[in-house]
Amino acid sequence: MDGSGKEGFWRMQFTLMLVHELVKFAGLLLVGQLLVYVLSFGRHESNAVYRAFRFMTSPVVGLVRRITPAKVADRHVPVVSFLLLFWVWAALIFIRLDLGQGAA
Q1: Pick the residue with more confidence: 102 or 101?
Q2: How buried is residue 41: exposed, middle or buried, by Cβ count under 10 Å (0-12/13-18/19+)?
């Protein structure tokens, strides 16, 4: 055996780890955006940090806007984005644990 099965396993683990960390990062960006929104006391649109958070989270929020029904208000889409990212994050934990136990 040339070890390619083991190499494929580690490549899969690395890919899942990378996706898991990106999902976590996007979720933390949404939490940061919420905190700046709350702490800016209604002047969030003029806050440069809030605009930076909004720019960094716009790909996730835009994707979720496309897949949600039109009845969902635009102001609720970031919350839906966070909840979706949370469940993807949790699912990736279980997938990574399951793959890790299968390797033993």
Answers
A1: 101
A2: exposed
